[in-house]
Amino acid sequence: MKHRGQPPEPYRIKSVEPIRLLHRPEREKRLIEASYNIFGLRAQDIYIDLLTDSGTGAMSTRQWAALMMGDETYAGAVSFQHFEETVRKITRKRFVIPCHQGRSAENMVFTTILEKGQYIVNNTHFDTTRANTLHKGGIAVDLPCPESTSLEPSSFKGNMDVEKLEKFIKKHGRDKIPMVIMTVTNNSVGGQPVSMKNIKEVSAICKKHNILYFFDCARFAENCYFIRRDESGYADKAIEDIAAEMFEQCDGVMMSAKKDGLANIGGFVALNDERLYQKLTELMIIIEGFPTYGGLAGRDLEVLAIGLQEVMDFSYLDFRIEQVAYFGRQLKQAGMPIVEPTGGHAVFVDAGQYLPHIPAERFPGQALTTAFYIEGGVRVVEIGSLMFGGEDLTNGEKLLAPRELVRMALPRRVYTNSHLDYVAGVAQTITNRKESLTGYEIAWESELLRHFTCRLKPAAPEAVQMES
Ligand code: F0G
Q1: What separation in Å is there between the alpha carbon of 31 and the centre of ligand 1?
Q2: Which residues make up the CATH 3.40.640.10 domain(s) of the chain?
Q3: Which CATH class is domain 24-53+313-467?
Q4: How far is the CA of 432 from the centre of ligand 1 (A)?
């Protein structure tokens, strides 16, 4: 039967975890104790946690059962064989290297292929991918398509700018570019998908110039869903077949399996080049573990072998992507401008537009983030000038983010639409008093990745008005 409107959850609930809403005065106290930084809050003090979709998903009955089947043999574990077989089948790659999460895959790959002063080109680097490139002395270059920053809704805003890629390669030469990466979906521009056409165009360019082409495929199944839904010629194809077609375009992948692995921990590198595989495994034994467990327990590999298949189930993906879209519509109705269309794993609110009385220097995204906690015990995260701004270390200039966003990520299979209706209710309450929100000043910050640990204090409203 066809559903009317929102598809219902394609699963029923077998195990529950109580959550509790603290009274408002307690929430206020907790936020002050955390110096107004939501990374400092404790799990038990949060009612609904939309900080991230990474490692926060719920496992299926099959996965819980598989956990007990985990084979903890040091070398040659059966669970590794299950994992390897699944990853090979999905990614169409010969060699599979497990690791404990996405950033360790990045660390291993960049340590192996990148030399000082070389460029890694990406549609948009995720923070850890960028940090790992810089850490190895490389230069991280983002070439997102022009639509990625447009306010107009359009499909496949996650694409790479193919013309710019050609120009970049021409200018710098292939010897300066050891790898081009396509991040699917493109997290940093709003979880926006990449089209098969774009994936293939970039593949052709990389082949022509003999440059390695890798995917950062943390959310590969969500990307395949969008291809099926929005790209012509794919409406009748199975997600598995779309994934196969997509993965056949690249030389290798790095994956944070904490997302579309439907698991709480895990990652991998998969590739065809035997020499590169050998180099990676040598390094891996030093930093992650023996190649048949890679920093994970056998039970984690067993769980991943199932999660990676379950995530391609069409009814699961249909529910998930529709749930994100539903949540976006609810937030819009509550008066919040959002990035449109909604992407795969989160809704992004444009706090700069929503709170025009708070200048970017006073972090409107942080004002909204703290309001969600105070008003309803909801944790969301600022993705604006607190996260990306600061001082340019090369010239001392003050940096601001291109947009002041707040990300509301949905953990997989965790929250129902009633939870999201509650969050939308909180959003409406905030809208009703949004003129009263004030910005923040930084009381203390670390030199790198300051948003995780900085201490904040509310800025006086008069000060804000005087400056704006
Ligand atoms: N690549 C992408 C596209 C990601 O979104 C992430 C993590 C990573 C790599 C790194 O993987 O966390 O397993 O080391 N994203 C999380 C987020 C943290 O909240 O978006 P990891």
Answers
A1: 26
A2: 61-310
A3: alpha beta
A4: 34
Per the omega criterion (within 30 degrees of 0), is the bond before 185 cis? yes
Smallest Cα–Cα separation from 302: which of 61, 83, 88?
83
Q: Which fold has domain 61-310?
A: Aspartate Aminotransferase; domain 2 (3.40.640)
Q: Would residue 384 be called left, alpha or beta, if left means φ above 0 and alpha means ψ between -120 and 50 degrees? A: beta
Spacing, Cα 254 to ligand 1 middle (Å):
11
d(CA 102, CA 111): 14
DSSP 458: E
pLDDT band, very low/low/confident/very high, at 12 (cuts 50, 70, 90)? very high
Q: Which atom of ligand 1 is nearest to the CA of 409?
A: 19
User: Which residues belong to CATH 3.90.1150.10 in the chain?
Assistant: 24-53+313-467
The atom of ligand 1 lying closest to the CA of 103 is: 14
Asked if 127 is an active-site residue, the reply is: yes
Q: Provide the 8-state DSSP code for 450.
A: G
Average pLDDT over residues 324-339: 97
Q: In the Cβ-directed half-sphere of 19, how many Cα atoms lie within 13 Å?
A: 14
Strands 346-350 and 405-409, bridge-based pairing: antiparallel
Q: Is 357 a residue of the active site?
A: no
Q: Quote the CA–CA distance of 3 and 443 in Å, as a whole number.
A: 51
pTM, two decimal places: 0.95
Backbone torsions φ then ψ of 10, nearest 5 degrees? -85, 40
Active-site hit among 127, 230, 241, 273: 127
